[in-house]
Design a protein that fits this description.
2 copies of one chain form a homodimer. The first copy, chain A, folds into 3 domains: 4-47, no CATH class; 60-154 and 320-338 and 347-364, Rossmann fold (3-Layer(aba) Sandwich); 157-318, 3-Layer(aba) Sandwich (Rossmann fold), CATH 3.40.50.2300. The first copy, chain A, has 14 helices and 12 strands. A 6-stranded parallel beta sheet of chain A has the order 2-1-3-4-5-11, with helices on both faces. In chain A, strands 7-6-8-9-10-12 form a 6-stranded mixed beta sheet, with helices on both faces. The longest helix of chain A is centred in the middle third of the chain and has 19 residues, at 227-245. By secondary structure, chain A is an alpha/beta fold. At the A-B interface, helix 4, helix 5, strand 2, helix 6 and helix 10 of A face helix 4, helix 5, strand 2, helix 6 and helix 10 of B. Strand 2 of chain A pairs antiparallel with strand 2 (91-96) of chain B. The structure holds a DNA duplex. Chains A, B: InterPro entries: HTH_LacI, Lambda_DNA-bd_dom_sf, Peripla_BP/Lac1_sug-bd_dom, Peripla_BP_I. Chains A, B: Residues 2-56 form the HTH lacI-type domain. Chains A, B: This is LacI-type transcriptional regulator.
Chain lengths: 378, 378
Amino acid sequence: MVGMRDVAKKAGVSLSTVSLVVNASGYVSQEMRRRVEQAMRELDYIPNELARNLYRGRTGMIGVIVPTLRHPFFATLVSALQGRLAKHELQTLLCSTADADTGEAEYVSRLRRHMMDGIIMAAHTDHPANYWTSIGRPVVAFDRVLGDTIATVRSDHEQGGRLVAEQLVKSGTRHVVMVGGPRSQFDDRGEGATTFPTVRYFQTLGERLDAAGIRHEYVACGPVTDVEGYARAVHLLFDRLSESRSGGSAGGSAHDSGVGDAGIPPVDAIVGSDVVAACAVKEAFAHGLNVPRDVQIIGYDGTCLVDCAGLTLTVVKQNFDAIAERLAARIVDAVNEPEGRESKDGEDSKAGKEFKNAAAVDIVPVSLHVGDTTRQMA
Amino acid sequence: MVGMRDVAKKAGVSLSTVSLVVNASGYVSQEMRRRVEQAMRELDYIPNELARNLYRGRTGMIGVIVPTLRHPFFATLVSALQGRLAKHELQTLLCSTADADTGEAEYVSRLRRHMMDGIIMAAHTDHPANYWTSIGRPVVAFDRVLGDTIATVRSDHEQGGRLVAEQLVKSGTRHVVMVGGPRSQFDDRGEGATTFPTVRYFQTLGERLDAAGIRHEYVACGPVTDVEGYARAVHLLFDRLSESRSGGSAGGSAHDSGVGDAGIPPVDAIVGSDVVAACAVKEAFAHGLNVPRDVQIIGYDGTCLVDCAGLTLTVVKQNFDAIAERLAARIVDAVNEPEGRESKDGEDSKAGKEFKNAAAVDIVPVSLHVGDTTRQMA
DNA sequence: CTGAAAGCGCTTACAG
DNA sequence: CTGAAAGCGCTTACAG
């Protein structure tokens, strides 16, 4: 391995001169610079960031923890994130908890040992809030609350709920099925526990539907990591719907008051993630239902599945670029604002600390994109 | 930052004793070990891998370069790869060339400076072979040839071509459209140039179709990074097919000899990646075509799109886990087999070198999974 | 089995 | 503007 020493020898200058050239700091005479640069080129010198980082106490790397890249949502998120971090000269160290045997705690331990500058946490965690604060490095959470002092970035799921409710109400929907993650996610485990902001989408939607007198129910699937599990769940759902529907006119239009067995209107809208929506389109076709006439389908996320399902999906799109930008900005701020500053200036520092402790929450707007799986609104 | 020194002081032992305990190397008395471990716990000591790595000349990190994670194929690949590498205690440093402004050369430069133990290259590159060998670190290529001395892992695309040809022949297909990347990928730019093994799928398929007297044509899309581009291309394709078909009976069964304008049988099979296949199902529906009766559709890759398209796709599945396993094994081998060994043992070493220089190519089998987009074979 | 010493490759004050 | 010196935190021979 050719080091600075070799360059210095070859160029006939001292070590620190080479360092100055490499770092473009301080003033070096043209002649010296030229000789050093030529020596570096001839020797194919590569500065060793390890050594530099050791001295600086920084690595320029951010650990990104997600459940799995196999789900298009996290793939899209990480894609946007990696690009954003790269803009800040930060590298992305990828950790997916469901793709490896390696558990979250082990990943965090590795990230700490490798002196990551920060951690972006986008996976589920059972750790209590104080675990995340005790790590001693900047942590920013995506779409979940990890504690009072940890910044969170998330989409405006409430807005998503309102947008979808509006669409469903205006299009005369009468019975909605929401398909989502395990019901346990809805438990409010009180302060300190992890909470899932995502459920607020369903909650808000549910409230709005209630207000409009639209019947709705919730069907729980397995964890987000199991894409095939969603496919199975949606398949079972349609088999069930199909049975109850067979009482009325099969495939009859929802407008034609095809009321089911016990006076319950047949399900005429399915709501869930992109994956759920894509599977729902497929199952609807398989059961001879017309989308959107018999059943409307609305996805959530805005991944590539929007264009790959049997019909262009109507979806609530999360703004991945904006989310990534906020996430990156938060982590960069935290990295540049060393937590361990010894309050050199009483008042000011205190104020700053309090501001940081206010557990900032960035809420990014979502938008409804109308595809071919919903009916036109009058 | 609490370091070994602090631990040593607190435990009342010397620095090297702490080191021995941390590394579980050498023998330390029970009492010493106990005291050191307690001190580590009380101080929440985290070994600094940076310092350790600086000494060892290793980082335990592998750079993984892909075009984009937005394409399910690469997302699935990286997912599998990250899990495999983690098993080997290797971390994954993610670099996606299309998701960031950062170019491939810049990424490689960063990877070198950060002393990556190795690089897994799965993106397109315009660099000549000697660029990749000159990096001075182990490089393993996925699905492309980067030069004579760089190991490659890829799927058996020829087998894929044969499997699909067999399916198409047996099901009485008469006119196949293959949708793939830019035609330039087919150019054989001779030794030293990057080649795309993927095209061998289409080539093999084409040869087999020729042999069976089945008409086929190739439609080129944009680069793999542009998922929406595929959607558009498939859309245009179906519009075109629809026009030519309108001469015969619209939506007529291919069995019914609906011969097109110039005696050309109408297209009754679309072949391409998962993304292409998913889009094709959607377009077929939109154009009132019955899949698989009027047109068969066969995907390639085996990503989550298989279950998310309008019908369960018939696809050739690449074995992502096996690919990841081979990729990881190759890189681990290369890392453990330092390239710079000074041929201490003439003959043996020479033989070893030659073996390594033989540019190993691991070819991983693929498999055809029959879904609902192809006709049953007699 | 334990302690002082040199070194991994670089950076930053600090005197010339 | 340039050179010798100490140090980032750890590891590995090397004497005790």
